[in-house]
Amino acid sequence: MLDGGVIVRALAAPGRPHPHDVLIAGGGLATGVLLWTLRLHGGPPLFGLPASLTLLALTVMAAAELLRRTAPMAALVLALPALALDFCTGTLIATVLMFTDVVYAAVLYGPPGASRRIPLYSELLTVLATVVTAAVWRVPQVMLVGIGLALITMAPASTGLIIRNHRDAAQSARLRAEQTALLAEMDRTQAVAGERARMARELHDLVANHLSAIAIHATAAQTIDDPAATRAALGVIRENSVQGLAEMRRLIGLLRDPKATGEEPAATPTLDGVAALVEQARTNGAASGLAFVLDDARRPAGPSGPSSPRGPADPSGGRPPAPVELAAYRIVQESLTNALKHAAPGEVRVRIAHDPGGTLTVAVRSPYADRPGPRAPGSGAGLVGMRERIALLGGEFDAGPTDGPDGTVWWVRAALPGTGEEGRR
After folding, report:
1. Structural domains of the chain ordered from first start
2. Phi, psi of 189 (to 5 degrees)
């Protein structure tokens, strides 16, 4: 019974015949005994050997069939002398057919090297036997010897090799498909994780600034018994509430289908909006004794002011790429939010500049306060988000307290590749 190579050796326990092999061996043995009993064999024994040895050859061949899957090379070693003995004692067709199956199984289930050598040896044996027989007898009928040997050696060996090649190709294709599916799943997981991290950064940067201002001024309104100060705090709270709600709506619009909702995504923030951030922080931090100053060294010389001092022209000759501008804007935004929460009363200075090599640098310095807790609660994800933004763009980031002549200050520094392809053109 030929199974086409679908069942591999792992299905059978080592040293224990597979159930299919037991059926093949038992069926071959029973058929051979029946043929011998009916005297349906090839002819009289040669060399004076007793006819009963035909049954011995049949039994050995059946034993080889039991090992066809668990020990295919040992089965072939047993089958070869059994076939020779069968030829010399009358030749039962059942023994010959079982031999062909043993050859087929040796190629299909044997080691890779044996599967390549057995077909070659069967071809050489067929050619050699045909040539020798023709040289001895010199009659046309000797060609039947070659045909018979080819049918019992070359044909099963070639069939086993073809099926093995197809099986190996199918296994390779299945492995490649599994690897492709695994890589696709890994890419999908990484894409989902990256998108979730990006959404978390955007949500934090968009809302945290407004919510921090609301919390700070709500605390001030509760603790200061001054109607004018309370009205001013409520005004700031309302303004930040409206702006925070608008930012949330824009973020939701980015996550929805604009065609289905009728909403258009908001424009990407740029460094031109940093002055508005500083002005808003100045308003929100006035009650905490914080003064905010913007030093924008990218701009050409112009009128000086508290939020736009004079500085050298932008040496890059063009705007930074949009992702760089967005990252720089978010760095300033998060740094100002952290200053509102943690900084001691004093000056908070924001500096933006282009280095001679075209690198865009952002630095925010604020007075360091060793307080037990912030003015407003936070998630603690601000510095993590800033580091992630800079790392994605291949820049450098540093944040922490630094001792200076004016005492301890908190520095946030970011260096970004500030010149894109458009700027270099």
Report:
1. 9-182 (no CATH), 269-425 (3.30.565.10)
2. -65, -45
Helix ranges (DSSP H) in 38-154: 53-66, 72-88, 93-109, 112-137, 143-149
Q: Is the dihedral of CA 45, 47, 53, 59 positive or negative?
A: negative
Give the integer Cα–Cα distance in Å for 108 and 160: 5
Contact 240, 224 (CB under 8 A): no
Q: pLDDT tens, 90-136?
A: 889 999 999 999 999 999 999 999 899 999 999 898 888 888 888 88
Encoded tokens for 129: 């036997």
User: For residues 179, 185, 190 and 195, what is the CA-based torsion angle, rounded to 10 degrees?
Assistant: 150
**Which of 305, 307, 281, 280 is CA-nearest to residue 293?**
307
Distance CA 179, CA 369 (A): 54
Cα separation values, 196 from 92, 149, 199, Å: 74, 69, 5
297: phi then psi, degrees, rounded to nearest 5: -85, 5
pTM of the model: 0.51
**What rounded mean pLDDT belongs to the chain?**
79
